[in-house]
Amino acid sequence: MWSPFSAGVKSYLLKPVGKEPLIAELAKVRTEWLKARQEKNQAIAYIDKLRSQLPGLRAAFLEDWLNRKDCPPPATLQESFEFLAIPFHLELSIAVAVLELDIEEGGKYVPSDLHLLQFGMYKITEELLDNRGITYLRGNGQTVLLAQINQDETLNAFIAWIEMAKHEITRFLKVTVTVGIGAEITLARGS
Question: What are the pLDDT digits (tens) for 47-83?
């Protein structure tokens, strides 16, 4: 049986409706609406704040995950990937590379220039990756790159991509880059 209350009706007035009860009910509805609007705006502000912190949260999670000896259960890992907007699928492998500028400390670059070059390297790799994986910048200036590898791709294709990225970084920033490529991570096995 259909009921107005099951459809969301919270209150009602009986005829004949007097002026004061109508004004009181409208004021009550307005107060509830303003409260709901304020809660919605607070939730939106919270989500915006969380999104602004997402790159830092993502980098911290990935750094911890890459340095762990044990892998979390697949369900926990998938939940973390979804929450942090990491575009990885558990059934595919991930290749890891760490890029570092070949610049001596105390050389021709002042620290602020060095930080700009490191940030430039990070942004170039992020742009070239084009949603095929994820990059983050470590506190020591290294850029870490994680790319999902499909079954039909090989680690050699990833290495070729890294060489192309290295070339582009050198071309734009006029510096050389050292790259370390890690072993493939197979998520489903947790290795």
Answer: 888 888 988 888 999 888 888 878 788 888 889 888 8
pTM value > 0.85 = no
Neighbour-count burial for 47-67, b at 16+ CB within 10 Å, e otherwise: eeeeeeeeeeebbebbeebee
pLDDT digits (tens, 9 = 90+) for 123-146: 999 999 877 788 999 989 999 998
* Bridging pattern class, strands 93-101 and 185-186: antiparallel
What the chain holds in terms of domains, given with CATH numbers, is: 63-186 (3.30.70.270)
Extract the tokens encoding 38: 């304020």
Structure tokens at 37: 């609007």
Identify the residue whose tokens are 């991509």: 161
* Cα 58 from Cα 25, distance rounded (Å): 48
Q: Which residue has the tokens 């200036």?
A: 141
